[in-house]
Each structure stands twice: as C-alpha cells, then as structure tokens.
Design goal:
Blueprint lengths: L1 H6 L15 H19 L3 H11 L5 H11 L6 H10 L4 H16 L3 H8 L8 H13 L7 H11 L5 H12 L5 H13 L3 H11 L7 H6 L1 H6 L7 H17 L1 H12 L5 H17 L5 H5 L10 H14 L2 H9 L3 H4 L2 H12 L5 H14 L5 H9 L15 H8 L2 H12 L2 H14 L7 H13 L3 H8 L8 H4 L5 H10 L4 H11 L20 H10 L13 H18 L4 H10 L2 H6 L5 E2 H6 L4 H22 L5 H5 L1 E2 L15
Helix pairs in contact: 2-3, 2-4, 3-4, 4-6, 5-6, 6-7, 8-9, 8-10, 9-10, 10-12, 11-12, 11-15, 15-16, 15-17, 16-17, 17-19, 19-20, 20-22, 22-23, 23-24, 25-28, 26-27, 28-29, 31-34, 32-38, 33-34, 34-35, 35-38
C-alpha cells in the first residue's frame, strides 16, 4: 500500500469533515468503494444506499455518492441533484452528474431547467446534450446560422439511436432549416451501419406514413429489389436506396448488378452517385480490383462523403493512379483535407508522375505542415523533407511550483488513487477530465508536463503517456516513450533476435505498460496475449510447465509475447508492418491482405481493411522508430523499417500454417 501513503497527503478533498482519515481507515474504505462499484454495475440501488454512509470521508467519496444518485436518477428530485452538485462543486462527478441530468431534462422536454443547468456545464463533450441545447435555441428563436450544420454533424456521428439529435433534426426540418435530403442521408448512414432503429427514426421525421413499409426494404433487400418494377416518387426512390445500401454491405457484386441493370435509371444522379460510392468503398475495403471501376460510375464527387472518398484514394494508391488520389482528396471536406493522413498522401500525389517545380513546392508546403517525430505520417512527412527521427531534446524540467500544483490537484489525485486501487475506468475518466476538460482548452503544456510526471512517478504509464502526448510546444521523450522493465524487454528481445525497439513499440500500443490489462476479447498482460496463443507459443518454445494464470506474470508474458512476435516476423519475411497486423488481427488476414501488387508498405498499411488494425500498424511502426532513436541515439528512417509488401514469393516455404 505504499502508493496510498504517497498520495494520501495530497488528497485535499478526501475528508469533507476537515480531518484526514488514517491509512487503515482509508484501506477499509477502499473495500467499500469496490463493493459499491460492483453494485452500481449490477444496478443494485438498495445496496448502494446501504453502503454509502460507510464511504463518507473517503478520498473517493464523490464516486460513491455519484453511483448512488446516478442509479436512481430517474426518480431523483431537483433539490437532491442540486445538493449533490453543491457538495461536490468543481469535481468531475459534479459535471458528470450534470451531464446525466441534462440528458434526462432533455428527454422530458423541461427546457427551462435544462438551460439553467446547461449554463454551468463545463465538459460540453456530449453530442446529445449539444443537440438539446441547439433545440432550445431553435425553440426560442435564437438559433445561430450554423445550428443546422452542427446538428447534422452530431447526428451523423451518432451510430446508435439517440433522442437529442434526432429531435433537433426534426425541429429544424419542421421549420425548413433542414432539407429532406439531409434526413434521408442519416437514414442511409444508419442503414450502412446496420442501425435499423436509427433508420426508422429518420424515416419517421421525413416520411412518417411510409414507416410501415420500411421493414421489408431493410430485412430482405434482395427480395424487395427483385420484386418491384419501378420506383416512382421520392419516398420510393429512397427506399430503393436504403435497400441497395443494405444489400451492398453483404453482397457488393449483386448490389452493383441490380443498380446497373435495373435501378440506376430510376434514381436521381445524387442517389446513383451515393450508391456507387458505397459499392466502391465496400469493394475497396475488400481490396477488390473492381473498386475503381465502381467508383468510375460516380458523376459528381460532391455527392460522396469523406469516407467514400478516402477509400477511393486508398484504392487508387494501390493501383498507382495518383491523379485519382489527388482528385479524391481535393473533393473532401475541409476537415478531411487537413487530416494528416490525407495531407501526406496529397503531398505524395504532387510528387508522382514527373512533378514540376510548382508540384514540388506544393508537396513541400504540405509536408512541412505536419512533419514531426511522433506520429506515423508526421515521421513520413519529415523524411520526405530530408529529415529523420532523432532523439528529442528534453524540455525544461517542471519547477517546484508546477510540481506542487499537480500534486495538490484533487482531481489528479483522485484519478491516480482510483486507478491504483482497481477502479481504472473511473480513475482514467477523472484524470482526463482534470487535464482536458475542467478548464476551457484544458491544461497548458507546462501543467501537462507536471501532471504526466506525477503519473510517471506512480508508474501509471498510460496516463503518463497520454498526458504527455498532449503537449504541443515540446516533447518529453522519457514521458511519451517510457521503457519500464528495460532489462527484461531488452534481454528477451535480443536473446531471440528481435529488435527491442519493435517490442517496446508494440507493448506501448498494446497495453500502455499496464500489467493487468485485459482486452474485450480476452488478451492479457503487457503484451496482450490471447490464452490459446499463449498455450500454443509455450508449447512451441518448450515451456512445459505453463499454466494460463502465468500470463499475468511479467516475465512469462514478455517471454511468450516476444516469442510469438518473432514467429510472426519470421512468417512474414521480417516485415514489421505485416507482423504487427498479424499480432493484432491474427495471421490469416494479413496473409490475404498482402496479395496483390508489390507496393510501398505505407500504402499497404493505409489499405488495411480493419480500422483498428490499420491504426495499430501505423502506431506500432511510429513507436518503434522513436524507441530506436532513444535506444541507439542515432537518426532513424521510418521508410527503411516499412519497406514494401507484396505476395509471398512462390519459391519461399509455406508459412507456418498453425500460427494462431
């Protein structure tokens, strides 16, 4: 319990009575808090009420009180809510409960209380609450000119059915502030995401009388599309679009055939373009050579969204069609074009096909806007400009005053306390609130540096890294790229011929050095090893006494994780990008994904079909380059580590088929 002794003196809000509890009393209170978290997750309101008195005076009392009130919030009164907000004023729990109460007030259409409460809301990060606030502005005749755009942006981003943004969209539509096409587009996006309740809600807004016929179009798209001859009228056309959208998600070829042979002539140009964009996107995700052919049917790029345009750019990269890459990126929204991914690839497009001086100047301008040492595309842009990743100079250390401010910040202390006693989810949220949301714009760089240092010293590596990553004016490499367990990692890696920088790069992405990390699919420990993979690898390396519980032992986890990574690397011709993909998604998928042309591994990585794996591969490579710079003290090339990716040469032996 050494961490408790370190943190307790700085938990200024620990005892609301004004006295600091003893360590033993605090420890007993920890057990109560853990029981209350369990009761909250089980929605046991009675147990929460029974345990709450025992949590009074504990450092994490605000969490105990929050769970108890949140569990019965629908029956709570305004005075009870006000009393909670006053008692825990300035805390994460105060603003979190205010967020919860705002959602209820919005659902109840209690707009007067909503606006009074909303004026004091600090986080402002809940899209549904934002939409309720925009609804009130509309009802009061005070809606800003950009309100429709804000509502649509939030509504389109919501995957699940929500009341706030759907209600705001309905209100704006009723007042001619949104067009029917805006509402139908939400229905299409929801159909694409297989969120059928959200589809129904959108259709209720724009064509309520048509809702009864919606189920057939969505549930049995092939039957619906082949059983009808015409699509007369806007509503029927949109139903055909929704049905083709559903079909395209499961059978791209059939959707393309029906659109081309039957329905295309009966739809508007915008509807056809949307569908061809969706079909092209699905084909590109499947790495199909037909993708660009489908995209070629699009007559107006403005009818496609950034996601479709991004997949057209990816397919064009694979095919070496750089004019199409440029055209796709140029057609994106401002937000899309300024994303570092597309800034980098637009620069590469300028340099393709015999660039002139103007092309080179444009490429240089784009690369300079994102170049840096930390992230994948920042590194590649820096290398395009002739630089490499080098060890970063350390910033000025935190001053005693800056350290003291961090160590006496109640929210930071509660966050660390919660994490260290086992309430990781709650602790992370409170920590993030303290660094990002408590004040407008979040902490400044010097405050972030001191907060990150506080987390590093407690070996809460994920908060150390994530907090340090937010500094803009300097980089503290020791915080962003820490190397816990250095002897173990380096010795295990070198002992089997692995680059320690690659292992560190993978661990940083997998677990952020959290020893007890466990993923939603059951991967465990520092290197996030799946149970079946651990058993297979243990047998492969002759670890005859391995038992599943050993995966949480640091040395065993590193031994098995590095051994598996080396086997994957051997299986994929020493390609770090392919092996990282195999580590994340299993080896079977990257074996298929590598088929096709021999291409720059950066292009290959950007075309990985799974968003999670695509991000994972790029982050592992970027991490590896930074760790290599730190470990060697020498400039590092990201491109050299990437190389190229292509099919396995026929002359090579078959891959290790039983690699899990």
């Amino acid at each position: 319990m050494q961490w408790l002794k370190i943190l307790t003196p700085f938990l200024l809000g620990a005892s609301l009575a004004g006295t600091m509890p003893t360590v033993s009393a605090q420890t007993r209170g920890d057990d109560v808090l853990l029981e209350m978290q369990k009761a909250f997750r089980q929605k046991d309101k009675q147990k929460l009420a029974t345990l709450l008195p025992a949590a009074r005076g504990h450092a994490l009392e605000p969490w105990a009180a929050y769970w108890e009130l949140k569990a019965r919030l629908e029956e709570a009164t305004q005075p009870e809510v006000d009393a909670f907000l006053q008692r825990y004023a300035g805390s994460y729990q105060e603003d979190r409960l205010r967020n919860d109460w705002l959602l209820l007030l919005g659902q109840r259409r209690d707009w007067e209380r909503f606006m009074d409460m909303h004026a004091k809301f600090r986080m402002r990060d809940d899209k549904e609450v934002q939409c309720y606030a925009l609804t009130v502005d509309q009802l009061r005749g005070k809606a800003a000119s950009d309100a429709p755009e804000l509502v649509l942006r939030n509504w389109y981003a919501q995957r699940e059915l929500d009341d706030g943004c759907a209600n705001a969209a309905a209100e704006l539509y009723a007042n001619d502030k949104l067009k029917a096409a805006d509402i139908w587009r939400k229905a299409r996006l929801a159909a694409e995401a297989n969120r059928l309740r959200a589809v129904r809600k959108a259709v209720e807004i724009v064509a309520p009388d048509a809702v009864p016929g919606l189920r057939e179009a969505l549930d049995s798209p092939t039957k619906y599309l082949t059983g009808r001859a015409t699509a007369r009228g806007k509503m029927k056309q949109e139903f055909i679009v929704l049905s083709l959208t559903r079909l395209a998600m499961s059978d791209t070829t059939q959707a393309a055939r029906l659109l081309d042979s039957k329905w295309g002539v009966q739809l508007s140009a915008e509807e056809r373009n949307w569908l061809w964009g969706l079909i092209g996107k699905q084909a590109a995700i499947s790495l199909s050579p037909d993708a660009l052919g489908y995209f070629a049917n699009v007559s107006r790029d403005a009818d496609l969204n950034d996601d479709m345009l991004g997949w057209r750019a990816r397919a064009a990269m694979r095919a070496g069609q750089w004019k199409q890459v440029a055209r796709s990126i140029d057609a994106m929204s401002d937000a899309g074009r300024t994303d570092p991914t597309w800034v980098y690839w637009r620069g590469r497009a300028y340099l393709a096909n015999r660039p002139g001086d103007e092309d080179r100047a444009n490429a240089k301008r784009l690369f300079e806007s994102i170049a840096g040492p930390s992230t994948f595309y920042a590194q590649l842009a820096q290398e395009e400009l002739g630089g490499k990743v080098t060890p970063q100079p350390a910033p000025q250390p935190s001053t005693p005053e800056e350290i003291a401010a961090a160590r006496t910040n109640p929210a930071l202390n509660r966050g660390l306390y919660a994490i260290l006693m086992g309430l990781r989810s709650e602790g992370v949220r409170e920590w993030n609130y303290a660094t990002n949301l408590h004040t407008p714009g979040g902490m400044n760089d010097r405050e972030l540096l001191a907060a990150a240092d506080m987390a590093c010293k407690q070996e809460v590596w994920d908060r150390c890294i994530n907090t340090s990553e937010r500094t803009k004016s300097f980089i503290d490499a020791t915080q962003r790229f820490p190397m816990p367990f250095r002897t173990s990692v380096v010795d295990h890696s070198k002992g089997i011929g692995l680059d320690p920088a690659y292992v560190y790069g993978l661990i940083r992405q997998e677990s952020r050095f959290i020893m007890d990390a466990r993923s939603h699919v059951g991967a465990s420990g520092l290197m996030q090893v799946m149970p079946a993979t651990a058993r297979w690898t243990a047998r492969k390396i002759g670890m005859t006494d391995f038992t599943p519980d050993q995966i949480y032992d640091r040395e065993t986890n590193i031994t098995i994780g590095t051994a598996y990574l080396k086997l994957a690397l051997d299986d994929f011709d020493d390609s770090m990008a392919l092996a990282a993909a195999a580590y994340n998604a299993g080896p079977g998928r990257p074996r298929n994904w590598r088929n096709g042309p021999v291409i720059d591994a950066a292009i290959w990585a950007e075309n990985v079909p799974f968003s999670e794996t695509r991000t994972y591969v790029k982050n592992v490579i970027a991490n590896t380059v930074n760790y290599a710079a730190i470990l060697t003290g020498q400039p590092q090339s990201t491109k050299a580590r990437l190389g190229t990716v292509g099919p396995r040469p026929a002359s090579e032996p078959e891959p290790n088929k039983d690699l899990p």
